[in-house]
Amino acid sequence: MTHSIRQRLLLWLLAALMTATAIAAFAVYQQARVEANALFDYQLQQIAHAFPNEGLNAVPTPRVGDARSITVIQIWDRAGIQLYLSDPYSPPLSPDTGYSDMATPQGSWRVYTGLVGNYIVQVSQQTDARHQLAARTALRTIAPLLLLLPALGALVWIVVGRGLRPLQEVAREVGSMSPRALQPLTQRDLPDEVQPLAEALNGLLGRLKEAAERERAFIADAAHELRTPLAAIALQAELAERAPEGEQRAAACAALKGGIERATRLVQQLLTLARNEPHALERKHEPLDLADAARAVIAEQAAIADARGIELGLTAEAPAMIDGDAEALRVLIGNLVDNAVRYTPPGGNVEVKVLAQGNHAQLVVADTGPGIPEEARERVFDRFYRHAGNGATGSGLGLAIVREIALRHGAKITLADARPGSGLAVTVEFPRRHGAAA
Amino acid sequence: MRVLLVEDDVMIGASLQQGLRDDGYAVDWVKDGRAAELALADPAHQLVLLDLGLPHKDGLTVLRGLRKRGSRVPVLILTARDAIEDRVQGLDAGADDYLVKPFSLAELAARMRALLRRDAGRADPVVRVGSLTLDPSTREVTRDGKPVMLSAREYALLEALVARPGAVLSRTQLEDKLYGWGQEVESNTVEVYIHALRRKLGQDFIKNVRGVGYMVPKTA
Q1: How confident is the model at residue A436 (pLDDT cuts 50, 70, 90)?
Q2: N or C, fewer C-beta in 10 Å, chain A?
């Protein structure tokens, strides 16, 4: 089967037309036969009764000719002696009077046998001839239709072609689009059948454009943000180069190493963020215990917290099962705990809590730091946003990463004061794993 | 030469302060826009190095406020914003130069010298007063064609005095140009350096205006 709608339509339409024509021809033929039969039967009877009642003498039988007449007339007397025969090619005498059908080796006949005075008059007609007549009638009726078929085909071809033109225009427009400039399709009067396709395409184009813009913005932001640590490294390297041997050079080199570490951390976080983008490759989610994940992270960061004089602890009374990406969740919890430890002054504490309630599993990280004022709570999740006066060596990506990971897990993040007016409590609410509530 | 550095990034700020001090500048460093405005209220600085993305108050806002108050101090913007619109906006807001991060300390120093030169109304990169020449880029000083060896502080003091020959600078003004905030100023240091300079350049080169301060005459 061909894949062109135009060809397919043409083929099917022509096939349907031909079938319809054939059926019509058959119907006309049947009708014509019935009518012809009635007419000819009447004619047979008329001919038979047109003979005089008496005074017929035997007439010589005409010689056999090539042309056989359609109607054959035979006359017998009551004694059964044949008096007349219009054509030697004829059926025998019918045993009954009235209409009858007779089959002879030469063909089938329609016969009218009537008693006219003292004679038996039989008028016969070959059925074949009647059929031919009906067929000719049918053909005459159908012929103009058959002649019209090519014209109809051409018409269908043109009309379908026109109907499909909007589709070609849409295809041309989509084909000429550059991935850098994804515009929605121009508004035009599209047929109802093409409209949904155009709308779906516009939807996809919109989403693609958004994704591309997000990506571009991300790359621009990333490049911009890399400038700062690179500027620091460039300056630190220049100072190290200038520094005289000894203590000064050692200090300059230490500063340079610090700068490189910072740039490395930024690059690492950029990668983590890119990996946790909503469009990133979907990684497998597996059933895991949020409390276990928190325990692992806290074990990792305990030494750092201790060195800063911060008490770091976990409260998790029962397992809280969720479906999640273990590695990403470790990054999420790690970033939250790292932030809390970083911004909490020495002597403070950072408390991690894991709760399972109804359909939700909650992770809460609360600290005794300065907190985040209400008006900044939305913005701290923006990439590269740094809250003023925080020492400013962070990448500004930690919470952006947390948000992306939470989004991928269908989790909700809320920021609140840990205590009235101070401290920060970050709550991440995950949907609980099905079947684990029991 | 005293400069104000406005930079919120700790690493960049520390490196710049260190590098510029090595070049003989007195560097005051503030880390946000509000502190910058406070520091700029006192016209002690000959040059301002201004970052744009600052906490509390954006660098451009600080710059516009500074110009509105009529300050003519040269401002060099140091920023990661490299788009042409950003540069145009920065210069139109009243900056005298624009340097995109990352940059080299050597280029920054050269641009600073150029700005200071223009600010002093000179086109010649070498300062000439009578038979004395002073080259800010190499910090070489000659007297009657012969090189004079100076320490960093001596050089800084001389540079301040020859910047405006004939103008009298008080001891406090001279101290301001030698020391940034938080740098310990020993008493009578200015006198010590003046003494050293006179020894190397000739007693008459620097005049003492009793009760007022010091000056280098226009035709020394």
Answers
A1: very low
A2: C
